[in-house]
Structure formats: C-alpha cells, structure tokens
C-alpha cells in the first residue's frame, strides 16, 4: 500500500456526529459518529484498532518540521485523545498487536517491537523486503509482515520477536486474514489471487483465482465461522465473495472507488471496505452464506482509504486529511482515479482527521 501525503501538527478537536451535517435515512443506519481533527505531520497508511487494549494506532512516516520523524501515534480508542507514540519506526505503514503477550509490532524496517501498555520499545528487528501490511495470526501467536518484494512475508514470534521464517508468495501481498484455526489468506494485488497458507508449516497450500470478476485486490475480509472471503478489488470496483474452503466464487457486488482496506464484523455479519477515491465506506450484509447485498455506502472523506474495526463497539475507524487542489492536470487525473499516489494534491497543514463510523 502506498502512503498518503504529509502535513503539519494541530491539536485534537472533536467535531459533530456527521461530517456534512446530513442525517442518513432510517434504512441506512451507519453514519459518521465522531470526527477528530488531530493534526500531525507525516504520511499515513494502515490504521489499527486494538479492541482489547482500547488503543488506536496510526502510522506517520516522514514529513516536515518538528514531526518529520517516522513514528506511530497512539490514541485512546474511546475518546480519541492522544496517549503517546512509538518513535523511530522508519518508513512505518501499520501496526499489529499480540494480545496474549501484550507486544506490538510496527511494519517498518527495522520492525519495532514495543510494550502495548507503556509504548516503550522492547527491541528492533531488521527484516528483508519492504515492510507494508501487517497482521496477527492467533493460532500460532505470530506476526505476519507483508512486503511487495521477496520475501513477501516475514513471520515473527509474537512472544519474543524472533524471526520464525519467511514466505515467498510470487506476488505483491496487500492484506491478510486468519481464521484462527491454522488457515491464513492473503490477497495478491498484482496477481488477482488470494494465497492460502498453512499457519503451522508456513507453506502455501493454494491460490484462489478471482475468475475475471475483479482485479487489483486491495482489501480482504473473512467470515471465519462460515468460511467466506470478501475480496475488495480496484478494477472494477468490486467485492468478489468466495468460499474460503475451495475458492469457489459465490457472487460479486459493487463497492466504491479507490479501495485500500476492508474487513468483516462477525457481530453484525457485515463486511466493509473503505474507498478514498469517492470517499465511501461500503457495508455488505451477509444474510446467509449464500445471500449477500450492499447495505449502504456511507459518505466519509476523500482519502479515507484504510479502515479498522473496534469489535467491542462495532465502530469502524478511518483516517485521512484535507488536500489542496492538485497543481497539474496529471495530478488531477491521478486524484480522479482514486488510486493511492503521490499526486493527489498538497495536504493542508493540521488537517489530519480520524473518523468513527457507527450506528
């Protein structure tokens, strides 16, 4: 995943319950319930909610001025007040947490392993490749660090941070999910596939083709109970829904433009994907393992391309900022596509914002 542009620090301000002051119709229950303009300098990528630890982790890489150093800023998940930061996370893209050991890990090079209670650095872990996405695999208590170049996956022990092994997927991984029973799924953006991995052996056991229903998968959700994968794609803007057991495609549904993240909420039986291009959060309802429908497209903010679920409150968090108009036609074309890129426009200082979407 490519990082967004940089901007300057501002204090936290909580704004209304809906970004544009609009009240959605009663059959569209989701809306922006909190808007927190927290400011801060630096590009951003994957946002991560630690529901058990009640913290929200936001990667900030590079920038200008006093906040130029790469770091992870940490917020209280309930109030969105700042709690501190993990410093020196070079080129950071995201964070994963092992709730059993209480250790957090930054997707950076080196990876920074930290204490989730104190935010103090425990150790740094040099890795190969170019760390990007990251997630926790609970069955083995391991951290998967994803890279668009080989080794595509570096696997760390969540207890001590040691490198357990690496996995070459033959493609560029974007997002991964675990069913908690030893099966790991990772979408490959440049291969239009979902790789299947045995978590115990760290070996690939197959790859599910998208069958021409979607291309450029950039987000992934998993209904572990019913073994359903939700593969959120760029071209066309589609969610390909398939069996996690054999890759059989069940259906495909339209989503918004410019997806870069997604997930599934087992509490509500809804999949969701965030789109920065047209500023939408698509909610897909799973009526049954064979019946799905687009429930709602929630209007968010342009650039809000990644998302994370707080499973305790059922709120979905997104991050973005405000941008000045692109300076060139080429930049305007890039902006219109909704694909992450460097020519979106200049980020307005102090505009970085956290959004919470809920009912």
Q: How would you characterize this protein structure?
A:
With 359 residues, this protein is an all-beta fold. It has one domain (9-358): YVTN repeat-like/Quinoprotein amine dehydrogenase (Methylamine Dehydrogenase, Chain H, 7 Propeller), CATH 2.130.10.10. It has 1 helix and 29 strands. The chain has a 5-stranded antiparallel sheet, with no helix packed on it. It has a 4-stranded antiparallel sheet with strand order 3-4-5-6, with no helix packed on it. It has a 4-stranded antiparallel sheet with strand order 7-8-9-10, with no helix packed on it. A hairpin with a 4-residue loop joins β7 and β8. The chain is globular, with a radius of gyration of 19 Å.
Low-confidence stretches: 4-25
Strand order of the largest sheet: 1-2-29-28-27
Mean of all residue-level pLDDT scores: 89
Radius of gyration: 19 Å
The CATH class is Mainly Beta
The CATH superfamily title? YVTN repeat-like/Quinoprotein amine dehydrogenase
**Fraction in helix:** under 10%
Largest sheet: 5 strands, antiparallel
**Element-by-element helix/strand order:** EEEEEEEEEEEEEEEEEEEEEEEEEEEEHE
CATH architecture label: 7 Propeller
CATH level 3 topology: Methylamine Dehydrogenase, Chain H
Q: What gross morphology would you assign?
A: globular
Number of strands: 29
A few lines on this structure:
The chain has 359 residues and is mostly beta strands. It is built from one helix and 29 strands. A five-stranded antiparallel sheet has the order 1-2-29-28-27, with no helix packed on it. The protein has a four-stranded antiparallel sheet with strand order 3-4-5-6, with no helix packed on it.
């Amino acid at each position: 995943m490519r990082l967004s542009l940089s901007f300057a620090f501002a204090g936290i301000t909580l704004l209304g319950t809906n970004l544009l002051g609009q009240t959605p119709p009663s059959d569209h229950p989701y809306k922006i319930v909190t808007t927190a303009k927290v400011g801060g300098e630096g590009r951003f990528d994957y946002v991560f909610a630690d529901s058990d630890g009640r913290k929200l982790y936001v990667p900030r890489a590079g920038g200008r001025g006093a906040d130029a150093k790469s770091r992870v800023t940490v917020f209280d998940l309930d109030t969105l007040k700042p709690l501190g930061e993990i410093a020196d996370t070079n080129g950071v893209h995201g964070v994963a947490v092992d709730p059993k050991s209480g250790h957090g890990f930054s997707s950076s090079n080196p990876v920074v392993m930290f204490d989730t209670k104190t935010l103090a650095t425990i150790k740094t872990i040099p890795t190969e490749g170019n760390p990007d996405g990251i997630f926790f695999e609970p069955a083995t208590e391991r951290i998967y660090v994803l890279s668009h170049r080989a080794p595509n996956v570096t696997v760390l022990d969540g207890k001590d941070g040691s490198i357990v092994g690496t996995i070459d997927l033959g493609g560029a991984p974007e997002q991964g999910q675990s069913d908690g029973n030893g099966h790991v799924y990772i979408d490959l953006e440049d291969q239009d596939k979902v790789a299947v991995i045995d978590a115990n052996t760290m070996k690939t056991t197959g790859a599910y083709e998208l069958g021409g229903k979607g291309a450029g998968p950039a987000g992934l959700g998993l209904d572990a109970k019913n073994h359903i994968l939700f593969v959120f794609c760029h071209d066309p803007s589609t969610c390909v829904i398939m069996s996690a057991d054999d890759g059989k495609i069940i259906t495909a549904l339209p989503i918004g433009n410019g997806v870069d993240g997604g997930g599934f909420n087992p509490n509500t039986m809804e999949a969701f994907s965030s789109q920065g291009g047209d500023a939408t959060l698509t909610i897909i309802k799973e009526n049954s393992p064979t019946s799905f429908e687009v429930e709602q497209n929630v209007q968010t903010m342009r650039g809000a391309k990644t998302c994370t679920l707080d499973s305790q409150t059922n709120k979905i968090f997104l991050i973005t900022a405000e941008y000045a108009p692109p300076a060139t036609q080429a930049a305007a074309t890039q902006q219109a596509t909704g694909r992450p890129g460097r020519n979106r426009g200049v980020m307005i200082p102090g505009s970085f914002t956290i959004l919470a979407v809920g009912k």
